[in-house]
Amino acid sequence: MESAGTVISIEGIQATGRHGANPGEQLEAQEFVVDVEVWVEVTADSLEGTQDYRVIADRVRGIVSGSSFVLLEALAEAVATDLMEFPSVLRTTVVVHKPRAAASLGVDDLSAEVTLEL
């Protein structure tokens, strides 16, 4: 039986960024929260044999803070595409939450989700 990989889950990665379709959203940084699931092929019982979750969190923060998108969907896809570049990654699901937009709509959460795989 072939393994589908091991899942690394990280919830609640906080980052600030300039994303949105409304006037001013790309001018003023706001908070985003990102959840990721990364399926990896583990080759050894060491950091070199998997994907370091600290590196994943740092890369997510870098994409959120270092780019600008109109759509949450585009931001989620950019994060997922970046995570797929790690050699050990087989599949990833990224959920980007926009707390300020959810609060302005009077809802608990507003998010976009994308899954990419080899």
Structure, described:
With 118 residues, this protein is α+β, with helices and mostly antiparallel strands. It has a single domain (6-117), classed as GTP cyclohydrolase I, C-terminal domain/NADPH-dependent 7-cyano-7-deazaguanine reductase, N-terminal domain (GTP Cyclohydrolase I, domain 2), CATH 3.30.1130.10. 28% of the residues lie in helices and 33% in strands. It has helices at 53-66, 72-83, 99-105; strands spanning 6-17, 30-40, 89-97, 111-117. It has a 4-stranded antiparallel beta sheet, with helices on one face. Helix 1 (53-66) packs antiparallel against helix 2. The protein is elongated. The chain starts with 5 loop residues before the first strand and ends with a strand.
The major β-sheet equals: 4 strands, antiparallel
The value of Rg in angstroms is: 15 Å
Estimate nothing, just give the exact number of structural domains: 1
- The best one-word shape is elongated
Q: How many helical stretches?
A: 3
Structural class: alpha+beta
Proportion in helices: 25-40%
Query: Could you list the spans in which at least 5 consecutive residues all have pLDDT below 50?
Result: none
CATH architecture verdict:
2-Layer Sandwich
CATH class: Alpha Beta
Question: How many strand segments?
Answer: 4
Strand content: 25-35%
Q: Spell out the CATH superfamily.
A: GTP cyclohydrolase I, C-terminal domain/NADPH-dependent 7-cyano-7-deazaguanine reductase, N-terminal domain
- One letter per element, helices H and strands E, the order comes to EEHHEHE
Mean pLDDT: 94
Biggest β-sheet: strands ordered side by side in the sheet: 1-2-3-4
